[in-house]
């Protein structure tokens, strides 16, 4: 079982050795709305794009659209690009096709909300075809086609099975095999979050035959403030266990910036990675109000 306190202490003990070059990403074309919880840049229809969550500071109603970089760290909304009623976008590639996912939220009359993860096939910058809807109540559903051709599925149940949120995993042979039942029955990884904390997978990478997951780990403090940290771990496939878990970035590593609410100030929401030989670049949502990238030492070496 892993605990934020232990991981954070280990991370801070090594922090002086870590390369950190953080930069704020600026977004235009969205009026006075915020763009946060972004993906890493990816190629679609011959362009390098970022998908981002667009939202007013005083609202939780979001859309996801695509942006292109017009100068260093400045991104603008692509005219006539997709506009999906989602939160927290992510992407993967399956059979060579770009699959964009996000969280669909339904706000109920009693003031509560329900949510599920949905997936779209992006053929062009402006065309999105819904291909799968996950179970209600589950965020952080992720897919990765492995070198074997199989598809690794990460789940994140809450409640009687997952508490505040734990990661499960299973394998399917094709996207057409994915079902609600397979997702809900996926076993939880061993050696993961304690009951008072939670986390989820954000992006899956296969590196030299190992499966690594970029994720987040989170908790509440005594005042009810949220604390989110970027983490990675190795998924031991034979036993479906979380191993080599480590925090790779916390809020203080980034530039100062706005926050949505005071209880969200200490939030880093992992979006995606670009991996190079000696370093990585992490793209992340910051304090539910902005987006940044940061250069870090390669944690997979």
From TrEMBL:
Q: Where is the signal peptide?
A: none
Gene3D superfamilies linked to this entry: Glycosyl hydrolase domain, family 43
Tree of life domain: Bacteria
Instruction: Quote the InterPro entries the UniProt record gives.
Output: Glyco_hydro_beta-prop_sf (IPR023296), MPT-1-like_LmxM (IPR015045)
User: What is the protein's name according to its record?
Assistant: DUF1861 family protein
